[in-house]
Amino acid sequence: MTRPGRISVVNFKDGEVVCYRLVLIKGKAEGCDKVFCKSAGASAPLEFPVYGGKFKCLGVLDKGENRVTIGATPDCQDLELRLDFRPRDTRLCVVPVYVVCRGDPGTFQGPPGADCSPTSALRRLALGSQLIQCLYAEKLNEHCFGRKTFQLECDIVDDAPPARLFRSQLSANEARDKSQLELWRAIGSELLAAGLASAHSKCLALLSCTRWDGEVTSGDAALATGGLALLGSACLHTWPTVLSDVIKCFADTTKLGANLLDNSCYRGTYGACFSTTLGSACHEVGHMFNLGHPTTGIMSRGFDNTHRVFLASVHEGESFPRQAPHQATVNITIIPEIRIKQANDDLTHLSPGCATILAHHRWFNDIPQQESTILYDSTRSVVSSEAGLRVVQLRSDCGAVKKSWEMSGSGTKGGMGHPPTVPPATTLVAVDTNGTILTAPLH
Fold first, then answer.
1. By three-state DSSP, how is residue 426 classified?
2. What InterPro entries does the entry give (predicted)?
């Protein structure tokens, strides 16, 4: 969408329908150093910088038709963009949850003077969840699947809060003594019993009890599968509480103190820590939706570069993580080299296999009109579905994607074979047009 003269929007068309609340708008503003974005869900116009004539701004939508206004200098004509926020026809949703241990006040670790209260945590988690939801929509749109993404509980349940506080029966000391797998199992069981996690809801949960003592992090996790993505909160203090602070937090070059966990992939700043930890949460959410580890992008080490999605300008030197393990416990075993394939690649892309899985995933679509079954014939090494296969992958025991086949058009209905000889501990993952998923160990 364009206007003669100064301002144009390059990633949305006027009247476009989206299923999520927080939108990332990209555009051009010649001769300006900043733009202002006014949206229905924001209390006041927000200011965003312009670099090299380009800008990225964030707007919050109310349900129904919205008019988002982007302006610059007084002599520049405002641009008005109509966007329609219409949640999908589904009961499936993600519930952001802040987990507070029994007998614990629920404060998270942070620098002196920071608001580390449970109320602040809920605001940070709610906004972070919306940023993740927005990121997935943009990444799928890059693959021409449209802006598909998951629904948050507050999108489809009118009286639901944007994030929920959950009180665990574990004490803080008990939680800090557990491994991340033990924590995932314990918290997952409690969320199931409480009805927050179910056949229709998955949880993105942060633990309030995470602590860094200068050498070891306890009460920490970065693990997801099935209905729960569980993460620690030691870097939650770097996350914004309000939309107007998102860009400032990503661009914050303040050095982290020695008494705070530096989970920034060796970059050492508040902004890099926010980028890595929001990306880590995004990565784990991907695992909840059956994604493995390809060689590049958000489901590899690209999650360190989440800031590149939302900033109009970045310091290139901060965008290439070292080939070293993550300081925290993000569950990646293989750290591949990241290479830019296109000039506009922000390093957080979805691989073709990941994008195709999500594009047909039931949690990213309306309620399917029909059911289907995926069958695997181990004798012939053939997988098939009457609905048509969309993705077939072979993965190692650590989730690394070794082979991936994506099918376009109506999918492959006649069955597809894989090499009869595969390495030990290989798992076959197949997704069909209706979002049915088969996971089958081959050895």
1. coil
2. Metalloproteinase_M10B, Unchr_Zn-peptidase-like
What are the CA-CA distances from residue 50 to residues 25, 34, 213, 243, 401 (Å)?
A: 13, 5, 40, 18, 38
Asked if residue 4 lies in contact with residue 26, where contact means CB atoms within 8 angstroms, the answer is no
| Helices and strands counted in the chain (H then E) | 8, 22
The kind and range of the H/E element at 173 are: helix 172-176
| Exposed / middle / buried, residue 113 (Cβ in 10 Å: 0-12, 13-18, 19+) | exposed
Question: What is residue 307's three-state secondary structure?
Answer: helix
Distance between CA atoms of residues 89 and 86, nearest Å: 9
Q: Residue 95 corresponds to which tokens in the numbers above?
A: 């519930």
Q: How many residues does the chain have?
A: 443
- Rounded Cα distance, 35 and 408, in Å: 40
Q: How many CA atoms lie within 13 Å of 369's alpha carbon, on the beta-carbon side?
A: 1
C-alpha distances out from residue 265 to 36, 125, 231, 240, 269, Å: 32, 21, 17, 20, 10
Q: Which amino acid is at 160?
A: A
pTM equals 0.92
pLDDT-derived band at 1 (thresholds 50, 70, 90) equals low
Give residue-wise pLDDT tens across range 181-233.
999 999 999 999 999 999 999 999 999 999 999 999 999 999 999 999 999 99
- Cross-strand bridge partners of residue 54: 28, 51
Q: What pairing do the DSSP bridges indicate for beta strands 427-432 and 437-441?
A: antiparallel
